[in-house]
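Is protoporphyrin IX containing FE placement plausible here? Inputs below.
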Amino acid sequence: MLEFIRLKKQQKLKGENDKGKYQNLPPGTMGIPILGETISFLIHKAEFFRQKRKNYGPVFKTHLFGKPTIRVSGRENIRKIIFGENRIVQSSYPASVKMLVGTNSLSMSTGTQHRDRKRQLMKFLSVEFLEMHVMCFSELVQETLRYWSSQSSVEIYAECRYLFMELAAKFLVSVDLSKNEKKVMKKHYQDFSDNLFTLPINLPGFGFNKALNAKRTLKKMFKTIVKNGEKSVNQFPSVLEAYGATLEDQKDIDDEFLDAIVELLWNSSETISSAAFSIVYLLATHPVVMTKLKLELSENGYILEDLNNNVSDTKQTSFKGVQELPYTEAVVKETLRLMPPIGGAYRKVLETFEIEGYTIPKEWTVVFGIRETHEHDENLLDPMNFNPDRWIGNNDASKIGYFPFGGGARGCPGKNFANTVLRIFTVELCRNLNWDLLEQNPELLYFPTPRPKNNLHVRFYDKSAIF
Ligand code: HEM
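Reply from A.M.:
I modeled the complex. Tokens:
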């Protein structure tokens, strides 16, 4: 009897606590039962969040992918989430992402498995690794730029994806992709990426089914490449172990090993190619920035005064060299601020907490909006303007809400790799080529990564050919 009274008391208390849990929720709408507002999100993508932010402010509720969800933006607000990992929140993505990327993957793992794998990946992507490969990154970029300028025009977003898929495959996984393999893989990675955030319905015609098929094909392709390759097992870089992969016997390629290759190339090439496209686009539409960038490259020996000279006579890019170009660094930084490749990150709430006086209830999903944080930064004059100068000699730069790589325990381990590769790309691009967009005011999409809506073509000119 006493036990019964105690249980009743406990239930009453829990009910009262739960009531508190749902008081003072942020503004917003929850849509229809079960589906919530998922369909509207799948139709409007990034615009869905932009519009809600406009209507409700930096903290609003919605219902996505079967979960009551709160989307949060603003520097201090998202710092609370980023640095609350494993205390008040934990990384947790919608079911479709978990199933497609794989629950065993680095990005989806938690606890000690996550910590150990991440440590391994960061050890692999060391400064020594970057120093060792910078020359080869540059050569690959130069070779690609020569091809771009030899064509009457190129489809820029597709070309950026080929380049950075090849670069990631070569330097992270030690696999050389043929032209045809790159072409087929690009299509399947596109299907995989475009349908990651969707309803997990595995029926023909649904995005989830398309993404599952794409991943299956990518794994099959890598299996054939690995089997036909000249490599012995131990020539595969240890980085794959960070993704949970083991390859004990080359004849019997482990499923996890293939999952790991697909994940690593997805993590690295999708983001970098979107950023590289944004650099081409933003420089073409901001000639004053382009002039300043060229001046810096010229002052540092990357562009010779006599423009008839061969590129080989100019300074080679090096790891140290590209760290000493503040304006180039500012261009890359400002690109990632204005067009961040990843717009937001998902967390499960472990403990009820508050943001701006609103309750963020336990067991709900909370998403920190990187894109909206960058777009509405109160510390910036005209945050929607592309202005690399805001990073130069600015003592208050540390106050800028800048999170393209997330942060805290789940912060991006590929940050240094990405920054180095993007600086090399910018230097090689601007010192060798001029270019025009062949569409005025091209429409852009911002989800899953920034890109042109249509197949934007760009005409590249080799500088020595026009001077
Ligand atoms: C411009 C390029 C890149 C951008 C903007 C970017 C952005 C991000 C962001 C925002 C996150 C945090 C996600 C979260 O908090 O849930 C993240 C995580 C991650 N990124 Fe990157 N990334 C880039 C390049 C790379 C590269 C080159 C690699 C691999 C070599 C990589 C591997 C990863 C991995 C494995 C995670 C998961 C980390 C974890 O869960 O602890 N990324 N990235």
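Short version: The mean pLDDT is 90.
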